[in-house]
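Fold it.
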Amino acid sequence: MQLPQNKGDWVRAQQRKLNQPIDLDTLLWVRNRMMRLEVEARWADRIRLFEEFFPNDAMIPRL
């Protein structure tokens, strides 16, 4: 893994990651997985998965 030249490069890389759209295959996988977890009544896992892929927009990441 290559280390960034300075903190500014790292911050710009993280901002690019945050602004990338999620591809359709990933969204379909998440939807199917969440439905499966709901059928199995694994609510904590379902909530965790939802929060991972659809984070609270009100939270501002600290970079």
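The chain is about 60% helix and 0% strand.
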